[in-house]
Specification:
mainly alpha; 5 helices
Length: 138
């Protein structure tokens, strides 16, 4: 079983983890200010948000972990009925407050599609390596 790095806990990625790079809980004055200069609805700004804030959050993960995140994104994107706007909702019981909430993101599915496109390119070698392995042996 694939474990969460630096722990003995099983790695169970959730779609909400994909947006952890824009979680500003208790970091409004630093990360929040850095993010709020971008418009998350403009394609060019989305590219910068994804490359500079979202993707680096996965740098500590192995290629196998990245592969699972990629497949998770892929599976949700294939579900045409899945509502991605819920991923931008803040949960005040859980310390997860995003830089922008569901009312500020015009096309939440498009935002996740852009994440998928970018990680497909940036993680290409990792994804290929993991796809050639027997995932049941992880």
């Amino acid at each position: 079983m694939l474990m969460l790095p630096f722990t003995r806990l099983p790695y169970e990625p959730r779609l909400s983890h994909v947006l952890s790079g824009i979680s500003i809980y208790d970091r409004e004055e630093t990360l929040g200010k850095a993010l709020w200069v971008y418009d998350p609805n403009k394609y060019e700004d989305q590219q910068e948000i994804i490359k500079s804030f979202i993707v680096p959050e996965f740098d500590y993960l192995t290629y196998r972990h990245r592969f699972l995140i990629y497949k998770l994104l892929e599976n949700h994107l294939q579900d045409t009925d899945f509502d991605f706007s819920g991923e931008f909702e803040s949960d005040y019981d859980d310390p997860r407050v995003l830089a922008w909430d569901e009312t500020e993101i015009i096309d939440s599915r498009g935002f996740f599609e852009h994440i998928y496109e970018i990680v497909s390119k940036l993680w290409r070698d990792d994804l290929l390596r993991a796809s050639l392995e027997d995932q049941t042996q992880w």
